């Protein structure tokens, strides 16, 4: 190397200001985030064809859900369902009063419906859970083929005088024929869709069969 070239090289090496020339790392930027070009193209295709915004590595970065990152995320298409929790099948603590006071007229009969606690009777004569359950998460058969707890989305039948299935709505135990009507405390005629009517919860199979 000539003296002049060596002098220029040393000046460049020793006096180059920081952040002047960026050298790309050998593994690229953010090497811990590896992406598939084909996957990104497919996500872009889905986004364009459906006219929706999908967040991914090259469009806002991968979405964090808890401790995990997902390749593609569209808020309105996420239907996150938590695992079945047996404790959620237990309901109690509510006294139903359709009308607190009514004065009967001549010739009128007042009817009162009540459900008496059956714990002692069921504990003595009913079915008891033994052993560990078989957990089923796919390829479901008809409900009548199972015995145990089921977490599902169900449409209560129309026209029942007293609903059968309990549900926690607005942090209260309710017996409802329409989830949305109950959430809004609507007392007028129900015009909601099947999706808006449906209840999601955990019930004993006997309750579901009875409540269909």
From TrEMBL:
The DNA-directed DNA polymerase family B mitochondria/virus domain sits at 87-184
State a single Gene Ontology molecular function. nucleotide binding
EC number(s) given by UniProt: 2.7.7.7
* Pfam entry (one): DNA_pol_B_2
Task: Reply yes or no: does the keyword Transferase apply.
Answer: yes
**Matching Gene3D superfamilies:** Palm domain of DNA polymerase
For this UniProt record, the keywords arranged alphabetically read as follows: DNA replication, DNA-binding, DNA-directed DNA polymerase, Nucleotidyltransferase, Transferase
The residue ranges crossing the membrane are none
Q: Which reaction does it catalyse?
A: DNA(n) + a 2'-deoxyribonucleoside 5'-triphosphate = DNA(n+1) + diphosphate
Q: Which InterPro entries match?
A: DNA-dir_DNA_pol_B_mt/vir (IPR004868), DNA/RNA_pol_sf (IPR043502), DNA_pol_palm_dom_sf (IPR023211)
Q: What GO terms in the biological process aspect are recorded for it?
A: DNA replication
Annotated family: Belongs to the DNA polymerase type-B family.
Full protein name: DNA-directed DNA polymerase
Source species of the chain: Mytilus galloprovincialis (Mediterranean mussel)
